[in-house]
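Subject: Sanity check before I submit

Could someone independently write out the structure tokens for this chain? I want to compare against mine line by line before I put it in a report. The sequence has 295 residues.
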Amino acid sequence: MAVTPMLAGPRTLRRVPEAWDPSPYRRIGVEPLTPTIGAVVTGVDLAERLDAQTFAEIRRCLLEWKVIFFRDQELESEQQLAFARMWGDLEEHPFIPAGDTDEVARFEKNDRVGGYENVWHTDVTWRERPAMAAILRAVEVPAVGGDTLFADMAVAYDNLPVDVKERIDGMRAEHDFMPTFGFLVSASEREHLRARYPVVEHPVVRTHPDTGRRTLFVNGVFTTRLLGLDADESAALLEYLARQATFPEYQCRWRWRAGDIAMWDNRAVQHYAASDYFPARRVMERVAIVGDRPY
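---
Independent answer below. Compare away.
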């Protein structure tokens, strides 16, 4: 079955809302960036221990807007880690250099190392339990450039044609670290890491465990094959599905300042780090929270 190319974005945006709480926020300010995804949270100092009510509102905001931003936060790694631990256990990334601890992934770019995260992706879907969320801190940013874009994959799913939704309902896909990170390590290390991180299967459309929303859960980086299809069909449909993240109607864009914090729901979004700042220096530190098995 051929896939009709979708080169233009949606003419009328369809959105199946989460079960949002209609009551106003009382502990935090919330300033939406777009009608579908992204909000700035104000009135919070993440360097301080959050009380239960404030944390509950931040969690609600993350579920409703999928990526949230905090301006001008004066955090060190230990405070970033403390905030992250309020959400659950933390991951260690086997391929990205660590910061102060193994739980901090440090992205340091300069006149010798350019950005390479400029591709739409969901983090670590090659894990059996991909990250639930990630918290990214801007340590040093260029004067211009280096923005990060985020795409709402629930709205992307909502706006798929009915025949495509029917086709992918119940479909599963393979995810693998090897095409992306395998070249970074030696053959012996690849063998060891393959035993630790075998190819995994996830649903093409996952159900969000907190909101019940259906989200498109394939990406052009780690998803290698759609099961039940021949190679050509798989490649064509996967390309079509991965392209859904590229439409601005599903996106928000963040222009960083040093001290900013972004937190995204890795179960519901993809992101893309614009690599337009070389040879300027850009330093970011990310902490990821262990997730659950997609279903």
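---
OP: Matches mine. For the report I'm noting this point. The radius of gyration is 19 Å.
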